[in-house]
Structure formats: C-alpha cells, structure tokens
Amino acid sequence: MARIDTKVVHGGRDDFMTLGVHAPPVDRSTTYPLASLAEATADLDRMCDGEGEPAYSPIYARVHNPTVARWEQGIAELEDADAAVAFGSGMAAVTATLLAAGAVGRHVVAIRPLYGGTDHLLASGLLGTRTTWATPDRVAEAIEEDTALVVVETPGNPTLTLVDLADVVAQAGEVPVLVDNTFATPVLQRPLEHGATWALHSATKALGGHGDVIAGVVATDAARARTLRQVRIVTGALLDPQAAYLLHRSLPTLALRVRAAQASAIELSKRLQGHAGVLRVCHPGIADCDPDGIVGRQMDGPGSLFTFEVEGGLEAAGKVMAAVRLMTPAVSLGNTDTLIEHPAGLTHRIVDPAALASAGISPGLLRVSVGLEDVDDLWEDLDQAIAAAAADA
C-alpha cells in the first residue's frame, strides 16, 4: 500500500493515462447529450440511488461531475475510506452528514470545542436535533435511546484540545461517530483508522491551501457514501468543478505544506512560552497540551496551528491583530500565508458566551495558523506585535 506522501501526489489520477492528460481536466458541462434513453434512464436510477459512477453518462451536473469525482477519489485514498463525497462548503458537508445520519428530530451527543458554525447548528436545533454537550470522558452516559450521532473535532477549534478517538468510539458503542479532521488533515490523522464512521473536512482550509476555494468533503464507508450522495443530489449542495480542479491541483503539495508549517508552529509556540505579556500558549507539541500522548499514537504530528492568550483581554488581542505586519489578520486556516484571528470575536462569535468560557475561549485568546514564511520573520512580526500591544496598554 502506498504511503501518504505518494497518495497525495497520485490520488484521483487513475484514469489520466486513458484520457491522455497530465493535469486534472475540468468538466464544466451542466448537462450531457443522451443518445440512448434506456442507458440514460438506467444511469439516472443508479446515481439517484447514490451510486458513485455512471456507466453511460453523468446526465446532469447536480447528479455527477467527473472532475469532482476524481478529487473525491484522492481524498478517500488519503483517509483510507471506501469513498468520499464533496460539497460546496464545510458547513454543507456537516449538514449533509447530520441528514444522512438520521439526526433530524433525534438526539446528538457533541464534544466542545467545535467550529463555531457546527456548534451553532447543533445548539440552535435548526435541523430539529436535540444536543447534549459532553466531555470526552462522559460520552457513554450521554447516549440516549434515540441518539443518532456523536460529533467531535480533534484537534478542537480553536483551543487545539485533543480527544482520544478510540475511547470516544468505544463509549459510543453502536452510535456512529463524526470527526471533524480539518485541523489535522489526513497527513497527520485518519479518524477511520480509530473506529470513526465519518471523517469530515472543511476543504477550504489546508486541503485547498491557497485561500481561493470553498469546499467540504466527507470520507466514509460505501453504504454511507451512497446516502450522502442522495442528500447532495436533492439539496443541491454540490461542489463546483472549478473548485474541484483547484483542490486536486493542491493535493500533491499537501504533505509538504502541512509538515513545513508544522515545523514553524512548533518553533513559534516554544518561543512564545514565557514571553512577557503572554499568559498561556497551546500547541499539541507542548507536553502540557497533550497529557494523554495523542501525538505519536493517534496523530502523526502536532499540526500547524497554535493559540496564545495575551494579558489585557479583548483590547490587547485586538491591538496584537492590528499590529502584525507580515501575518494576515483574518479567519480561516491552512493557507500558504500565516493567519491570526480572534476566536471569541470572529469564528466563534455565534457560540453561547457560557460555552465559550467553559471551553477556554477567553477574550484574550488568539489563534495562529502558520504558513510557509521563514520562521524567524514570523517570530519577529509576532514579537513586535505583542510588544506594540503591551506598550499601547
């Protein structure tokens, strides 16, 4: 079996030799000529039942697109899954998975912290779900007779809290487990290997990697992939083929990008510890942030994000963001450039304040997604921004 560095380069390219191409082709057709009604009808029946590939024709772009399918194949290979199903955004992928899991009108167990949009979707009951929030060690007792799903994100957004997936899966029993794997990427963590049912990504982040595409994807077994495709067809939450092309274009460099950014994140988080004006730093590479030894056992590395809390709370955090010159003050993550953002005021603004506090998302907390710049340049920028904020206090 090929290793991850080979999979990212060759994933989703099985038919390139037959097609006679070297770069991913982009199929922008919305509809396809159908000379044989019988064959078209048979294909339509199969695909509307969730089958992944047409035998005769894609019929219509909402039903199937070859460019999207090739990228899905690549992600499935990275996650060691039967299949992957792509969507127009990460939140579209979350919503589709809740629908596919039969969570509408039923009970869900969720572990905080989660991405703010996911947290809001579950807490608001917009899909008719009833959510119990549990700590990782209390999942089993939160399970009810009508529990449809357990939802977890590790490393957690934004605090980088780590969760033992095998333990959560064991507690969940027969209840399927959805893992948001956006922060780790398949390069560093593959949830299905630890018993999870679905591995979900906001592909907008490191999978895309260049800040120019919005997408989501879910890797799972063949039966559940069929249901996800059915949901995608009827809801229209499809991924645009040009976006799929950009994602496939980015795939070969994924492992290189993740590891390079990770090396800088390790160094920056070390330098920040004990820095004047910084109250705490968290990165999975710091022993105190990984008390259960998740890195090296469940994760192949600590990742490219870290958080730090500045003295002075919200006002000081805002000043740090305003003072950076090289880093980009913006939401999102996994880009080639380094991004710094304020979770309580931005990505998690929509989350209940009491939930923010209990998850450790304080007013002074900043999240950094490290890019590919020189680490010393990044350090000089961060150091001066913290100093400037302190001087202006």
* First-residue to last-residue Cα separation: 56 Å
Quaternary status of these chains?
single chain
> Structural class, from helix and strand content?
alpha/beta
Which residues sit in consecutive blocks of at least 5 with pLDDT less than 50? none
Global morphology: globular
Mean pLDDT: 95
Would you summarize the structure shown here?
The chain is α/β, with parallel strands linked by helices. The chain is built from 15 helices and 12 strands.
How is this structure best described in words?
This protein is of the alpha/beta class and 393 residues long. The chain is built from 15 helices and 12 strands. α1 (4-10) packs antiparallel against α4 (66-78) and α4 packs parallel to α11 (241-250). The radius of gyration is 21 Å and the shape is globular.
